[in-house]
Structure formats: structure tokens, C-alpha cells
């Protein structure tokens, strides 16, 4: 996969931030507010929060945003211009309200690392992170680890092992690291651990060096 000018551990310093940290921009502020709404909706008192009025106001906001939306094809071109995936993806994208969003940094040993505390919208079992959310996060983190390692690709297989329930409302560390590259086949591993070092989820991924063309 053509990585353009993405940083790698051989060309960049330990601690290089690989994702787009939230900026002081209207889109980042609006998306952070939307994220807050999604979280608050799950926490609010369903009987007394006047949710009919909330629905009306949120629909009016959605109407306004849709009125200003260009054609999907145009928007896709815009999304994939320049910095690309890191602004809108569902794991690290500050412009995507479903992303926590996680900031990832690249380390000089070739691994990538980030910290996140997940809340209600990411719940699976009571008080714990949904297994699909863990897989989503790790798939993406492995993709970024591959870019940092110097050769990236499409996920062909993701083997997920759930060692213990992953807690919500606690800081978690996510890591990824490219282990080997054989021709187009890339093997990458990653994990989600608690602050005291307990491994909750570990993954092994097989990526194939291939790319879907960018819209233009
Ligand atoms: C630095 C920071 C920047 C961050 C930017 C980046 C962040 C990005 C993060 C985003 C992260 C998100 C990531 C996402 O969400 S990626 C989205 C999820 N993944 C997909 O949608 C992939 C869909 N599948 C495909 O497109 C194709 O099947 C691929 C491309 C995978 C291979 O089709 P292709 O036609 O190209 O390959 P080939 O058939 O010539 O085979 C080639 C070799 O590979 C072997 N093989 C193939 N498949 C498998 C398999 N499943 N298990 C085992 N082996 C497999 C095959 O046997 C052969 O081996 P050999 O016979 O040569 O020995």
C-alpha cells in the first residue's frame, strides 16, 4: 500500500504522534459536542429529560447539517485529500463522533501506543467493553502500526483472543506492532491492557499489501 509521506519508526522520533489530535477547529468542537450527546443520551433519565424536545432539536441540527452536505462523491474526495484517514476514521478520527477518539504515538522500537477510557456507547457485557469495539480498535491500531513499520495493507485475517472482560471507565492502553513482512504478507500483533498491566484482549493480524484506490 502506498503510504505517501506517512512517518515510519526509521525516519521519525520516538513519540511521534501518528493520528490527528483534536484541533481548535469548528468541526472538532462540533464533533466533540455530538460525541457528548451520544454519551449523555445513554446516561440521562429517560422519564424526565423531555426527550421529545431533545429529538426535535437534534433533528433540526441534522436538517441543518444535511442542507449543507455536498454530494457523497465530492465529500469522499475531500475526505481522502491530504492527511486522509486520521481525521474521519471510527477509532482515531476527531471528525467522527463514533470515534473515542484515540491518539496514537509511534515508538522507536517499532510499536504504536495509545490510551483511552471507554464509556457507555462502547458497552457490551455489563460495565465492560463490547468485543466488537475491541476488535475495531485493534484492527485500526494494527493498521497504524503497519504504516509506522513501513509497509501497510488490508486486513485479511484478525484473530482476536478475549482473555478477560475489558472494563469501561478505566484507562486502557492499546498497542500494536508489526512482527514480520514476507513479500505482500504482513504479520502484526496488538493488545488492550488495563492500567495495572492485565491483558484483556490480544490480536494477531494478517495484512496483505494491497490498496483500495483513493476517490478522485
Ligand atoms: C503512520 C500513521 C498513518 C496511518 C495511516 C494508515 C492507517 C490505516 C488504518 C486502517 C486499518 C483498517 C484496516 C481495514 O479495515 S482493511 C478493511 C478490511 N479488509 C478488507 O476489506 C480486505 C478484503 N479482502 C481483500 O481486499 C483481498 O482479499 C486481499 C487484499 C486481503 C487479498 O487479495 P489479493 O488479491 O491482493 O491477494 P491474493 O489473492 O493475490 O493473495 C496474495 C497472498 O495472500 C494470501 N492471502 C490473501 N488473503 C488471505 C487470507 N484472508 N488469509 C490468508 N492468506 C491470504 C494468498 O494466499 C496469497 O498468498 P501466496 O499464495 O502468495 O503465498
Automatic annotation (TrEMBL):
<keyword id="KW-1003">Cell membrane</keyword>
<comment type="similarity">
    <text>Belongs to the THEM4/THEM5 thioesterase family.</text>
</comment>
<feature type="domain" description="Thioesterase">
    <location>
        <begin position="127"/>
        <end position="200"/>
    </location>
</feature>
<keyword id="KW-0963">Cytoplasm</keyword>
<dbReference type="Pfam" id="PF20859">
    <property type="entry name" value="RHA1_ro05818_N"/>
</dbReference>
<keyword id="KW-0472">Membrane</keyword>
<keyword id="KW-0276">Fatty acid metabolism</keyword>
<dbReference type="InterPro" id="IPR048654">
    <property type="entry name" value="RHA1_ro05818_N"/>
</dbReference>
<feature type="region of interest" description="Disordered">
    <location>
        <begin position="1"/>
        <end position="28"/>
    </location>
</feature>
<dbReference type="InterPro" id="IPR052365">
    <property type="entry name" value="THEM4/THEM5_acyl-CoA_thioest"/>
</dbReference>
<keyword id="KW-0443">Lipid metabolism</keyword>
<keyword id="KW-0378">Hydrolase</keyword>
<keyword id="KW-0966">Cell projection</keyword>
<protein>
    <recommendedName>
        <fullName>Acyl-coenzyme A thioesterase THEM4</fullName>
        <ecNumber>3.1.2.2</ecNumber>
    </recommendedName>
</protein>
<feature type="domain" description="RHA1-ro05818 N-terminal helical">
    <location>
        <begin position="18"/>
        <end position="74"/>
    </location>
</feature>
<keyword id="KW-0809">Transit peptide</keyword>
<dbReference type="Pfam" id="PF03061">
    <property type="entry name" value="4HBT"/>
</dbReference>
<dbReference type="InterPro" id="IPR029069">
    <property type="entry name" value="HotDog_dom_sf"/>
</dbReference>
<dbReference type="InterPro" id="IPR006683">
    <property type="entry name" value="Thioestr_dom"/>
</dbReference>
<keyword id="KW-0053">Apoptosis</keyword>
